[in-house]
């Protein structure tokens, strides 16, 4: 039922983009030279839409999200293309404009809470800081609001916990603190990078419910970055699949799970454990995507997935496929679908 409601919500979106990324390319300086980590990514989100961004580690998901808030290191990263939020070109925004946007109208839940939280500042003051900066509250008022946010993310004894430092908390609690910080100013766009990694299933459901309630109340757009395809199936209306820095498939969530078109997407979905799978030597046999993600310094010619693809053809090695538009909501980068150049 949740999938059906999200699918209906996805169709109901208007054409006004909350976030629009066009031809995003991100290069990093390395000891081996300049590498292209993200290559030509396009991504559009409507207000109130939840979009899932999936793929293996190293495919460029987190880097794409960090580029939206201009959080990549200036000395080693070069970002090209266009990133527009609510009509504002973020790549052209000055530092003062970015300060007003970060943590206010656009928030991010980072993947590693211990490295994202200030180790010498209490968690209550870290959450309160956003209220002081963006909502002009006094510190006393902001600390009270911080305690309320800790209570919303199911932190026990929130008032006393607000006086703790990050190292006093477990990994799951630190993750909930990050989520409280991200939701505190009721953002219009929430970038959630593996938001429930350190949480048990019960807390995960509570956190996702909190995010959906925020979305319903404020029409917040959510870009959900995760490896958890079960979470994707329940939470999002549309899915973007990345591989080796490129988008390889985009579809409404029901279409993607019912009929994945790209061999990589099929491999991802096939690797998820299912009820009724056969047993071998007392263990369930899982499908796998053989091989490893190619190095940024040594991308294969043609389709980047061709060394691991069970359906590889000569054309896949010799020529690079382009994105093929299947419908208004669906596209795929594969020669089997036409591979338009």
Task: List the topology elements.
Elements: H1 2-11, E1 19-30, E2 33-45, E3 50-54, H2 61-68, E4 77-85, E5 88-89, H3 95-101, E6 106-109, H4 113-116, H5 123-135, H6 139-152, H7 158-161, H8 171-183, E7 189-193, H9 201-218, E8 221-225, H10 229-235, E9 238-243, E10 246-252, H11 253-258, H12 263-270, E11 279-280, E12 283-284, H13 314-318, E13 324-327, E14 330-332
Percentage beta strand: 15-25%
Number of strands: 14
Flag low-confidence runs: 1-14
Question: Number of domains in the coordinates?
Answer: 2
Task: Output the keywords.
341 residues, alpha/beta, Rossmann fold, 2 domains, eight-stranded mixed beta sheet, four-stranded antiparallel beta sheet, 34% helix, globular, disordered N terminus
Explained architecture:
The chain has 341 residues and is α/β, with parallel strands linked by helices. It has two domains: 211 residues, P-loop containing nucleotide triphosphate hydrolases (Rossmann fold, 3-Layer(aba) Sandwich); 61 residues, no CATH class. Helix content is 34%, strand content 23%. It contains 13 helices and 14 strands. The strands form three sheets. Strands 6-7-8-3-9-10-14-13 form an eight-stranded mixed β-sheet, sandwiched between helices. Strands 2-1-4-5 form a four-stranded antiparallel β-sheet, covered by helices on one side. Strands 11-12 form a two-stranded antiparallel sheet. Strand 13 and strand 14 form a beta hairpin. The relative contact order is 0.13.
Quickly describe the structure:
The protein is of the alpha/beta class. The chain has helices at 2-11, 61-68, 95-101, 113-116, 123-135, 139-152, 158-161, 171-183, 201-218, 229-235, 253-258, 263-270, 314-318; strands at 19-30, 33-45, 50-54, 77-85, 88-89, 106-109, 189-193, 221-225, 238-243, 246-252, 279-280, 283-284, 324-327, 330-332.
